[in-house]
Design a protein that fits this description.
By secondary structure, the chain is an alpha/beta fold. Helices cover about 45% and strands about 15% of the residues.
């Protein structure tokens, strides 16, 4: 009897292992897809980003998008834990302050390359994935400056104003400052999550300025459709009660610092609603929308949406998104816009990866798939971008 039970258990375990191996090999692990109408963009990626010719093998321990998203921070480590940034406190025209954290390297080129990095929702230059990407960019031969939003990165609020996914005023001032400070430097914009949404908003609303200021841009895991992305983030169970709830917790911490500094903030929004928000939508309804003059949260989300505006891009844009990203799942990605005539977007999609996850292997590391892809992109842009991407910026595909 015991022998037959043991045989049954072994058979069940073997069947489960075979099922997982089949699923992992044929469904979870796939070669990335590239959606781009521009032959120049496709050739650039084919020549300089070898990673796109290989399968992405997500970590077998957490292959799904939810686990990739939840563990994306904890599975990234850098040494040293605190990078030796050179900090500049930049005062904005309204008296607010943001922190610009530089990691510069020596470059022999007459026109060195610097990446302006806009982190996600409540991230800063100290967040793990920001540190790993900064180190990767440095190793690829470019300097980095991380733009920490108001109230983030250890910088206190100086004015009764925060930031949003559709407000580009602070970014415009930072860009002007950097261009004046480094007149001979080539710039690439890089944005992750909300930072990428702000950068995308700038690129489609200020195309002439973007062409003058950036050689190209990189957008990682952005919500192309903020309206439907928010709806997807509210679906039970994991999206709403784990991921969304954790994002809201970070926003409440930010709001508390803001309210403690400006107790009369009730003139702009209700502090009680801000500190009791359980989801990102509740927080944006209570704080972000009214603060930035929107009649409701839906109008704010419409304003923060880039889908439908991709044709306005004036410079080459490389974007990375996963099909299983809970904040922007596969059906919301702008594939058709990327392959439309004269599009300057190269959209790279993977079957797995989650939101800023892209974890590989079985343990913590400073280099996962996202870092490796950004490293190859930045190196290609640094060495060949001026020659191979300039025509694209001038409208020639």
């Amino acid at each position: 009897m015991y022998e037959s039970v043991s045989i049954s258990m072994v058979s069940a375990a073997s069947a489960a292992a075979a099922f997982f191996a089949t699923y992992y090999t044929f469904y979870a692990s796939q070669k990335p897809q590239v959606f781009a109408s521009s032959l120049k963009l496709r050739n650039f990626l084919d020549e300089h980003v070898q990673l796109l010719k290989e399968r992405y093998w997500p970590s077998p321990l957490y292959a799904g998008g939810h686990l990739q998203t939840i563990l994306g921070l904890s599975q990234r480590v850098t040494s040293p834990n605190k990078l030796p940034y050179r900090r500049e406190i930049f005062t904005l025209s309204d008296g607010g302050e943001v922190a610009l954290d530089y990691m510069e390297i020596e470059q022999k080129s007459e026109r060195p390359l610097m990446v302006l990095f806009l982190p996600g929702l409540t991230s800063s230059s100290h967040t793990s994935y920001v540190r790993t990407l900064v180190q990767t960019i440095n190793k690829s031969g470019a300097s980095v400056v991380v733009f920490n939003n108001r109230g983030n990165g250890g910088v206190p609020f100086k004015t009764p104003k925060t930031y949003s996914a559709s407000y580009i005023g602070d970014l415009e001032e930072v860009i002007a400052h950097l261009k004046q400070k480094y007149p001979e430097t080539r710039f690439v914009g890089l944005g992750t999550s909300l930072g990428g949404m702000v950068l995308a908003k700038y690129l489609v609303t200020k195309p002439l300025e973007a062409k003058n200021n950036f050689e190209c841009a990189l957008l990682l895991c952005i919500a192309w459709d903020c309206v439907q992305g928010s709806e997807n983030l509210e679906k039970p169970f994991i999206n709403k009660y784990l991921i969304n709830k954790e994002l809201a917790r970070g926003l409440r911490r930010l709001a508390k610092k803001f309210i403690d500094k400006f107790p009369d903030v009730s003139l702009k929004f209700d502090p009680k609603l801000a500190l009791s928000a359980k989801t990102v939508r509740e927080f944006d309804s209570a704080v972000t929308a009214p603060q930035f003059g929107f009649p409701n949260v839906l109008e704010y989300y419409k304003s923060a949406t880039t889908s439908g505006h991709v044709h306005k891009l004036s410079i080459p844009v490389f974007a990375l998104s996963a099909e299983d990203d809970p904040m922007c799942p596969g059906h919301l990605l702008p594939r058709e816009e990327a392959v439309a005539e004269n599009s300057k977007l190269a959209l790279i999609t993977t079957a797995r990866g989650g939101h800023l996850g892209y974890l590989e292997g079985f343990g913590k590391s400073s280099t996962h798939y996202m870092e490796r892809l950004v490293g190859q992109l930045v190196e290609g842009i640094r060495v060949y971008g001026g020659a191979e991407l300039t025509d694209l910026s001038n409208g020639h595909l």
